[in-house]
Amino acid sequence: MNEKWKALWESHGYSSPTAIQTAIYQPISEQQNVLAIAPTGTGKTVAYTLPILEKITAKKELQWLILAPSHELVMQITDVIRSWLTDKEITVTPLIGGANIKRQIEKLKKKPQIIVASPGRAKELIQQKKIKMHEVHTITLDECDELLSKDHFDTTMAIVQSAKRDRQLVLVSATHLETADRFFAQLSEKPLLFEEKAKPEARQQVKHQFMEVENREKPILLRRISHVAGMRGLVFVRDKARMDILLEKLTFDGVKAAGIHREVPKEMRQKVLQAFKDGALTYLIVTDIAARGLDIPDLPYVIHYDLANNEKEYIHRSGRTGRMEKQGTVISFVNAREIRILKQYLKEQHLIGEKIRFYQGALSAEMPEKKPIHPKKEQPHRSGGKHKKREK
To answer: Which tens digit of pLDDT belongs to each residue from 55-66?
Structure first.
């Protein structure tokens, strides 16, 4: 690590760098293309931020473009970068869809050296020639598994191909890329691959539990476990419609909860998220897209109210707790059929799920069913023979 970062490193409360932070520091410093895969919560944003910031100058032109798939992640990355800036002449500007584009264009006129953007808004401003890609030295794709998914692939590719051919590419992800070969084939280049697997001790810090419950009973169960001591959970639902119904029921029952999805304005999202971080809310209800990039320090619970559609989704959701090797608990609400699916997710990750129940105000391990005690069969009379009816 560069000497200039040591004091800031300590002020951020960090001790020793994580494996991924150590592995990619030098290659990025040397302008190499890098693909880094590491579990959620291992400090990937800081891992790529420090070596790239060393190369950013005060020259008034765009030098570094970061793409992220969600509004929350764009803002989170922006905050991280700002916390490491030591030169007041260097500025970072976030650009997200849904925000006032005229205001964003005014900010771009001040020529920030760093832009963090959602792919749709970045492409729009590139087409309007408000973002000058020929100036860009480095492009970072954060959560590149999502950026290179079917929904975002063409937009992301168009942005990357609009830059200089000798620009640097830095890609980071918590899961493997199914489209990596296709992406790099179109660029005629391959990056250095760095992969960090979750440490066995880190896996042990997060408990994976499940509760068997029918769909119609889920709101009742969520209300009941809201009384568990220390309960503060990020609750994943399938879509906005499910979120609205659940919030209505929780509010009626007096449970402190709020939700965020892609249609919620930025200011409201930030307000709700802060209330949850401050402990004013028991539950923050989210969809998968809205939750991308959420960083909630010391989050005790992640609750899969609706089971994830696939293993990758399960990993991303669950990674909101137990960050930086801290303790956390993941609870899945599942029916009999979904238990088999969940166990397959866990098996692929070499994890073990524990069946639990809510009992006397606490979460406890499911007790094995007791064998029914059958009444003893009537024994024949010792004197032998059948009893005669007593005469009246």
So the answer is: 999 999 999 999
Whole-angstrom distance, CA of residue 331 vs CA of residue 381: 57
> Averaged over 161-187, what is the pLDDT?
88
Domain coordinates of the chain in residue numbers?
3-195, 200-365
Output the CATH code of domain 3-195.
Answer: 3.40.50.300
At residue 86, the pLDDT reads 87
Q: Does this chain's domain 3-195 share its CATH topology with 200-365?
A: yes
Return the CATH fold of 200-365.
Rossmann fold (3.40.50)
- CB of 55 closer than 8 Å to CB of 32: no
CA distances from 2 to 6, 7, 50, 100, 138 (A): 7, 11, 9, 38, 19
